[in-house]
Amino acid sequence: MTIAEVGRARLRKEDSHLITGRSRYTDNITLPGMLHLAMVRSPFAHARITSVDVSAAKSSPGVVAVLTGSDVAAEQGSLPNAWPVTAEQKAPAHPAIAVDEVAFAGEVVACIIARSAAAARDAVELVDVSYDELPVVLDLEEAATDQVLAHPGLGTNTSATWVFDSGEAGTGKPISEALAGAEVLIERTFYQQRLIPAFMEPRSTVVDPTGEQITVWSATQIPHILRLMLALTLGIPESKLRVIAPDVGGGFGGKLQVTPEEAITVLAARHTGKPCKYTETRSESLMAAHHGRAQVQRLRLSATKEGIVTGLDVKLLADMGAYLGLVTSGVPILGAFMYNSIYKFPAYRFECTNLFTNKAWTDAYRGAGRPEATFAIERLMDELAVELGMDPLEVREKNWITHEEFPFTSVAGLEYDSGNYEAATAKALELFDYEGLRAEQARRREAKDPVQLGIGISTFTEMCGLAPSRVLGALSYAAGGWEHAQVRVLPTGNIEVVTGSSAHGQGHETAWSQLVADKLGVPFENVEVLHGDTQISQRGLDTYGSRSLTVGGMAVLAAADKVIEKAKVIAAHLMEASEDDLEFAEGKFKVRGTDQSTSLGEIAFATFSAHNLPDGVEPNLDSDATFDPQNFSYPHGTHLAAMEVDTETGRATIRKYVCVDDIGVVVNPLIVEGQVHGGLAQGIAQALYEEAVHDDAGTLVTGSFVDYLVPGAPDLPHYTTARTETPSTTNQLGAKGVGEAGTIASTPAIVNGVLDAVRHLGVKDIRMPCSPSRVWAALEEAKLSGGVQ
Amino acid sequence: MARSTTITVEVDDVSYTDDVEPRLLLVQYLRERLGKTGTLIGCDTTNCGACTVHLDGTSVKSCTMFAVQADGRRVTTIEGLARDGKLTPLQRAFHECHALQCGFCTPGMIMQSASLLQENPHPSEQEIREGLEGNLCRCTGYQNIVAAVQAAADGTTTSDSATENGASETAGVA
């Protein structure tokens, strides 16, 4: 009996070339005659362009051409938004190179094409652009008043208003009744600061226009969507475009975009007839690659005196920034389904107003809507506990769905297939020493220790496996949510797996090899996973939304099943047996009750030679499958943070972090562990460190890694991780998804912990990030208002 | 364009003589002139450490110095670490501890870790974290990177089983 691959902590196939410097990131590519691009960007957040003089730049040494918005106005189209959330959604045209007006600082106004990157950058300073400055709107609550318009032509800053009402949807009671009858009403406003995905590899694109097909290499999460969208935007037949995502250095949603820079690089290559490369600097990346979060959450939670929640009302202002990117408008809507989280709320209303401001546009960032929702509800559950003088865990227990109640239709209308919140919580409490830390907390309060201890709790669920195509259709998203795979059987019996979901660090090559090794009974080493090139992987919807395993992996398994079906016909013929008498196990077809067998490898060669196949059977075992999920999957978990807050300096540090995640059946525990760690780091970063800050003119102040505080190794703790395993019932493997869990769960755990440490000193809330200065200011303010109890 | 200067630099055991512009950064020289694309650029401000190499055996961020400053000196990049197809203990440890995901910070992280272990062969967890302060990773949350450096220091990686073309085995600890 061979050892099952699924569940093994296989070391990654992807590592060899990455640890030896044989990497293939886009910026590493050099092509004969290749030209280099540099972008001229607007220093103003809102201005009319009155003239663009490129004469000096054109005569600068090494410059081949300069493109302005007017030069390409007829061919650049408008960059796509694939998610018109309402029929009335308003959006400005989004040219890759601005023509008449710029709406955020960093917007491209011209592109230099030169023989070297240095020559291109030198010439940037020689382009003379005249601007008439316009008033800027930067603050979300101000944007909602329409006093200053981000796009005067639209007549409003509101792009769309989207509502879910459980009373109207028939999934619960009307919210008005719950609020009117509230014994306890918790009203809070939370601010989701603007974040920057800050993938380590700056975005880069190389376009080769030589030959009949234009080849685009790009640091993207979405080669297939990019191909389709570039074709539609620029008027190139899709069949004339090949997109390759080679090694991609992280994405986190930040490379889920069709960017101006990609379109411009295609235009530049088309204009010059030569290969062109554009690689952004880090400051360009922070300024102009899309941002995330940026929401104001106005919340009302009604409950009984016993702590039973009766309703939740959410009014959201969501910052689109200056334009609608690929899924900008849909990100807050994804959150709409998660505010009720793991709880049995009888009534729920969600209203989101999508607003334009003069900042870089927002879009998907790890979790995309779900971290914001989870933060809001987990903060509110703590606020309710404080109001009622209850333990925050007890409040959660009183409201969560118990494991006997699955499947459970949530008040937001989703069917949760499985879960066991009690089990995950019990395990977390045990690992954390909850009682011990509560006792220490009491001692420190008693002793008025300058370093106070707080315990933060976050119980969460999320929706993974984006997404059932019919659901996306109902939400007005333009595309489907299926994924494609192909399993090819080579004459030697080696296997090639082609997946539409291409990885940028997630380890698909290893995990998919494990899936197929088990399914086909071939050695792990004999499976090669191919992805990220539309010429090899012709169909796909790419990588985001914790979808790869639960959608893409299922397509791989389905394609492998088809290989077995095809091989069975040939095996029966070769062994002169009836198909009904065959069983397939460990890579062999055996005739039941005999010792006769033939291996997949033997069948592969027989199929290749095709000398002796049954009549009418194709000499080909290769199989395709496209999998469209019928439901999301719902990972969940309990995260506990022990926070130490120095009340003299305001510094909050993580003393202990325990998380128990239930992500169903695990293919590779090593990869899962890595995903959890990285997710935690990004969620903790939102809670404690990161924020995109603009000055009053709309210039990004946090424009380099000096100011935008991506945490380093000393800023993060040692995480204690564990798992419970409640298999998903929505896919054949029982898997759920893990890419975003850590990010979604950790932010509220940390902030709840910080507040728990200082609440007895009169602090009621602290806006993220809970930096030393903010915590200190909150403590001082509490002192001044006599908050010390 | 400024007048160019002739420099001679030994990079990964090969001596190169080139005319370079004085403003050319060492990392640009490595990547653009020598094709040493294993060394990567992640920022413009010497914060991320993706471009870390060794200069005469000590780690430097190659975006922080000019190519002309490397004249007459010896540079080792990530591409020069493995010898005869055999990985160094640190490279093995990064693989075995799953200390990389997208891999973009990895060359710099490994070069900095090597330098760290040279200065302090038996660092504590905190010393490792502080020693890697100048190298950012967005994928791993650092825990497995710290574990990899610790494993390399402790000599607990599998000795010769991993080669440059890496047979994938199962992790000892999950």
Automatic annotation (TrEMBL), chain A:
The protein's required cofactors: Mo-molybdopterin cytosine dinucleotide
Domain Aldehyde oxidase/xanthine dehydrogenase a/b hammerhead positions: 20-135
SMART domains listed in its UniProt record: Ald_Xan_dh_C
InterPro entries, alphabetized: Ald_Oxase/Xan_DH_a/b, Ald_Oxase/Xan_DH_a/b_sf, Ald_Oxase/xanthine_DH-like, AldOxase/xan_DH_MoCoBD1, AldOxase/xan_DH_MoCoBD2, AldOxase/xan_DH_Mopterin-bd_sf
Keyword terms of this UniProt record: Molybdenum, Oxidoreductase
Pfam families recorded: Ald_Xan_dh_C, MoCoBD_1, MoCoBD_2
Domain of life (superkingdom): Bacteria
GO MF term list: iron ion binding; oxidoreductase activity
PANTHER family cross-referenced by the UniProt entry: ALDEHYDE OXIDASE 1-RELATED, XANTHINE DEHYDROGENASE
Protein name per the record: Xanthine dehydrogenase family protein molybdopterin-binding subunit
TrEMBL record, chain B:
Domain of life: Bacteria
Record flagged with keyword Iron-sulfur: yes
GO molecular function annotation: 2 iron, 2 sulfur cluster binding; metal ion binding; oxidoreductase activity
Keywords of the record: 2Fe-2S, Iron, Iron-sulfur, Metal-binding, Oxidoreductase
Residue stretches making up the 2Fe-2S ferredoxin-type domain: 5-81
Record-linked Gene3D superfamilies: 3.10.20.30, [2Fe-2S]-binding domain
Listed SUPFAM superfamilies: 2Fe-2S ferredoxin-like, CO dehydrogenase ISP C-domain like
Region described as Disordered: spans on this chain: 155-174
InterPro entries per UniProt: 2Fe-2S-bd, 2Fe-2S-bd_dom_sf, 2Fe-2S_ferredoxin-like_sf, 2Fe-2S_ferredoxin-type, Beta-grasp_dom_sf, Diverse_Oxidoreductases
Protein name as it appears in the record: (2Fe-2S)-binding protein
Organism placement in taxonomy: Bacteria, Bacillati, Actinomycetota, Actinomycetes, Micrococcales
